[in-house]
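Protein modeling request. Please complete all fields; requests missing the sequence field cannot be processed.
Requester role: graduate student
Desired output: 3D structure, token encoding
Chains: 1
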Amino acid sequence: MKIRVGVLYGGKATEHEVSVITAVQAMGFLNKEKYDVIPMYLSKENELYTGAALKEMDVYKDEDLLKRYCKNVVCYGNNGILVLQSKKGLFKKTVAEVDIVIPCVHGYNVEDGNLQGILETYGVPYTGSDIYGCTVGQDKVFQKQILDAEGIRSAKYTWFYDSDYVEDPSAILKKIKKVGYPVVVKPARQGSSIGVTVVHTEDKIVEAIEEAIKYDEKILVEKMIENMVELNCSILGSSSYQEASVIEQVMGEDEILSFTDKYIGSGAKKGAKTKLAGGSKGMVTADRIIPADIPEELAKELQETSKKAFKALGASGVVRIDYMYDKKAKKYYVTELNTIPGCLAFYLWMPLNKEYDELLDDMINIAIKRYKKKMKKVTIFKSNILSTFNGTKGSKGMKGKLRNVNKNN
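Delivered output (409 residues):
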């Protein structure tokens, strides 16, 4: 019997379209002999749709076409199974049942633990990091604070809320000046380089802050590493084991890898060398060197640091960890961890002879093991303390007992 795999994507997020690209690719590469693939597309209005047509990119170009050929559904959990039920009509029908979910979501509102929390409540297994790992993975400030505590180097930084900036902008500007220009200003909980600006001089900082505030109330400002090369490493694993991909060197036309570089720029126009399902290439369109043109010793050090960061940040499944490398000082700095990287970073595993379908198999196996392990943990007590609770009177009696205990202590 095939495992019924729901691929969940889209949602009310700035990276909605990026999520669609990742999901369509994943659905195209899932092994059809092992899995029944069930699309679970969340529209920008958070309406859930399913249907075979969602496996093709063309359907997303016409919203009317999507609604005509796909079914609007709601879902609920039933003994570890996610049931997709028709939303419209007098009689509710089961449209599909899902054994495990692969979240292919990106960005704030979806990748940050919100959807994972819903799946936890339904009691359904899912791939990737859990609620805690996703929350930390989405918040770049949380990441830096944890990495600092673990002795993992990141660039000098400061952070603040938009309300702090409105209340006292001069104080915020002084903090940024101490970091030292040039700096990178970014929304702390966005992705795909959305709202990110490189600022070389103080006279441009206000404009950059205002741009970042459009996307998030929490802002991160970090030191821009000059003589910099962007390097990335993917990690696959869980809390008990981790394996590292090869290192990639990213070549963007902008100072840092921008949204345009990733999804729209020259790489997209030229096309990618790797042929992908669904007719979209996504992150693989960016110009990149795989493996990176760096010394073997540095590559091994980055792989080991990536494993350490993966575990410290509570990640699971497949992630991508990004670095800034100072060629002159020969130092590297962790930029961020992506809990659901674009294209699931499959292209970083191909040089190790792990094809995309195998990577997806590994992600599913890790998720199933985590689910089974979690089911063995104690989450409720069989005893019912309410059976001895005597209403308001009982509550007052307990308060009296607590007062006596305090006196005796």
